[in-house]
Amino acid sequence: MEGGWGINIIFCFFFVCFWVSFFLSIVTQTGLWIICHRILLLHGCWMQPLLGNVSDYHHFL
Q1: Contact between residue 11 and residue 18 where contact means Cβ atoms under 8 Å apart
Q2: Cβ atoms 49, 56 nearer than 8 A
Q3: For the chain, what is the largest distance between any 2 Cα atoms, rounded to a whole number of angstroms?
Q4: Calpha distance 39→57 (Å, rounded)
Q5: What is the pLDDT of residues 15-24, one digit of tens each?
Q6: Is pTM, for the whole model, over 0.85?
Q7: Cβ atoms within 10 Å, residue 27
Q8: DSSP line for 14-61
Q9: Which of 8, 16, 33, 38 is paired with 24 by a 20 to 30 Å CA distance?
Q10: What distance in Å separates the CA atoms of residue 22 and residue 9, rounded to the nearest whole number?
Q11: Of 47 and 41, which is predicted with more confidence?
Q12: Confidence of residue 54 (pLDDT cuts 50, 70, 90)
C-alpha cells in the first residue's frame, strides 16, 4: 500500500505541475497575467485600508 501511495503522490505532483505550467504558458501568451496582476494590485490597495485601518475607514462613512 505504501508503495502505491508514493506512486499516486508523485503522479498527482507531476499532474499538478503539468497543468500549472500549461496554464502559465497560456496566461503569458495571451497577456492575461498583466490583467491578473493589476487586479491583484487593486485588491491589495483596497484590502490594506479595510483590514489595517478599520477605524479610519469608519470615519469616511
Answers
A1: no
A2: yes
A3: 61
A4: 21
A5: 998 888 888 8
A6: no
A7: 14
A8: HHHHHHHHHHHHHHHHHTHHHHHHHHHHHHHHHHHHHHH-HHHHHHH-
A9: 8
A10: 20
A11: 41
A12: low
Tell me the three cell numbers of residue 3: 508503495
Q: Would you kindly state where each structural domain of the chain is located, as residue ranges?
A: 1-30, 31-61
Under DSSP, is residue 6 helix (H, G, I), strand (E, B) or coil? helix
Position 1: which residue type? M
DSSP conformation class of 7: H
C-alpha separations of 47 from 22, 41, 44, 58 in Å: 30, 10, 5, 14
30 vs 21, higher pLDDT: 21
CA distance 1 to 7: 10
